Amino acid sequence: MNREQLQLYFIMGSQNVEEHDPIVVLEEALRGGITLFQFREKGENALTGEDKINFAKACKALCKKYNVPFIINDDVNLAIALDADGVHVGQDDANAIAIREKIGLDKILGVSTHSLTEVTAAINAGADYVGIGPVYATTSKSDANSPAGTILIEQTAATYPSLPIVGIGGITIDNCQTVIRAGADGVSLISAIATHEEPFVATRQLLHVLQQVAKIS
Ligand SMILES: C=C1C=NC(C(F)(F)F)=NC1=N
Ligand SMILES: [Mg+2]
Description:
Blueprint: E1 8-12, H1 22-32, E2 36-39, H2 49-65, E3 70-73, H3 76-81, E4 86-89, H4 96-103, E5 108-113, H5 116-124, E6 129-132, H6 151-159, E7 165-168, H7 176-181, E8 186-189, H8 191-194, H9 199-211
Parallel strand pairs: 1-2, 1-8, 2-3, 3-4, 4-5, 5-6, 6-7, 7-8
Bound molecules: 2-trifluoromethyl-5-methylene-5H-pyrimidin-4-ylideneamine and magnesium ion (MG).
């Protein structure tokens, strides 16, 4: 995985799209040019069992059609079963070292981090990128920490300049440039695309704004 692939990292599950069809939303986002996708099926009405597997397979097939890596959140066994391109895990999921051993070196491993200590541990576990947030207030994650702003992104970029970083949490077209200027390689988001009337348009607009402000290398 190269750090440019983090530029516009869309995360979605069936619960994030209000009255829209999640498969249509994903195809529109892919057509619009998202650079990475995370399948994140969780929450009280999340799909389970065969429904979840079939939904994941449909999302994976769409990502393949648009040549965008397909990442699965939390569910390492599903990621292996579907031969996903990688997994994203949080601090409360299994130990990242064990997960790296389980998925192998050719899969993408992303880790959520909330402190420099957790960033260092993620690096030692062999993470390909770290997610840092929530930068701003989010409604997409019920158990999110309180918004931390961009300070940890700045500290991490300064301490580990070669570590790919993606910011997450309440990111919109209005604040995404601030996140990149702080040192993130990209932004990850759910609602800014998933709840937009026109996910294709939302994606194009976000990319346009993000392309104005490359990471200060
Ligand atoms: C809780 C999360 C934190 N960060 C990320 C990512 F953006 F992929 F790094 N994904 C998550 N699901
Ligand atoms: Mg998790």
